[in-house]
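Tutorial, part two.
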Amino acid sequence: MYIQENGNLSDDGTKVLVETLLKFKEILADIHVEEVFAAATAAIRQAKNQQDILEFVEKEVGFMLTVLTAEQEAYFGHLAVIHTTNIRTAVTIDMGGGSTEVTYFIEKNLIHSHSFPFGAVSLKGKFMKGLTMTDVEKAELVNYVQGQFQTLDWLVNARVPIIAIGGSARNIAQVDQQRKNFPLNGTHQYELNAEDLHYISYHFAQCSLDGLKKIDGLSSDRADIIVLALETFRTFMSVVQAPVFMYSKKGLREGIIISQIHDLFPNDFNKNEVTKKAIRHVLGKFNVSEDSTLHLYDIFTTIYTKFCEWGYMDVFENEEFLKFSYQLFHIGRHIDNDAVSQHTFYLLTNLTLDGVSNLERLKMALLASYQNKDTFKRYVEPYQHVIGEKELKQLRDIGALLRFTHGVDVLGRSNIKNITVEKNAESIMLTFFVEGNYLLEKYQAEKLKKHLGKICSCEVIIQFENVEETYI
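Running the prediction step on this input gives:
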């Protein structure tokens, strides 16, 4: 908004820039941060007096501003998305104040990128004369941005998901969550469809500027530009013919950080293991060894496979997801052992897990927190409109099996080496092969076998055999 007609950033704009950076410098000094990377985007990139600004900032603040090219800005946004979501192929859109970056990636490889010389603030100056947009102004805006987007052949009818970055997209996601009373916390990877955007557009159209400022989820300082951003997103979605509009909390800033860390530690960022990295991060918060969380996982999968084969439960569509749920089972014990289930469910429904959608996070929370049918029913109650009855039964049964397997491993280092699962007309026989003492395992197995009985609706018989294992 401080770019003048002659293309220069005004003195007032430069003053705001310097004052802002000085405030950040104070904070950085207070927390003893010595290395600073300051990236400038569209406003400084477009300013004709760019060099004067850079020299003035360095003199007054001591920061050397790095002016990102349009290509770099688009690349960093794409980099953040592919490292924090599991979307393999999509387009991204990052709408700032003075520019809009779009990319197209296939199998997480960047194929195309482009920067449009307009953003929410510059569009406001071009198309909006009063405090709110008129229908005529809105039509002119849509016609303009549609023409701009259609200049890119690779965008038109791409029919892939849209991943939106930036504050305007965040506000739209928050507004949608508020209107739906969305029960899960977190906006990263939150999804909307075309109907959702249409509904929000209609709602915004009924509001004055003061009315927009009062909408839950919408920041008051974005109320004057949110309609322009929303209509641009709607037009973009129409041009792309996208099936879904997803918000990514991770954008330019995270992309820059990932890029710099990746240069130092190239093995720490694998774009194909986003969820695995997120699970490892959660375990790391509680100093839990990743390997230790998979103890007896083979025992779990053996029982699970047989139960699915015999039709007692449906096969879960994502085997890796099941493994992650096993690793996080009752993670809440590291907070309070007397409320393990409650803490686990609260933690996973309120934690951002990169690569895990909101619905997947809810399913993971239900599996990892399973205690019994009553607690499961209580947790599910606010979410019954989100998950169908058949799927709830599947989650309940798998949760019960997780509860049984982890429960048998009383000390987290059980000497159970193998298991056989056999079936006859009236019962299921589980035979555990153990090295050494198995008193605790036997006690817990007998205590918890009721969970398995409810899955298969028949008697469960458990026996233990002490074996001697030869190591080669």
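DSSP finds 19 helices and eleven strands in the chain. In part three we will examine how such features are distributed along the chain.
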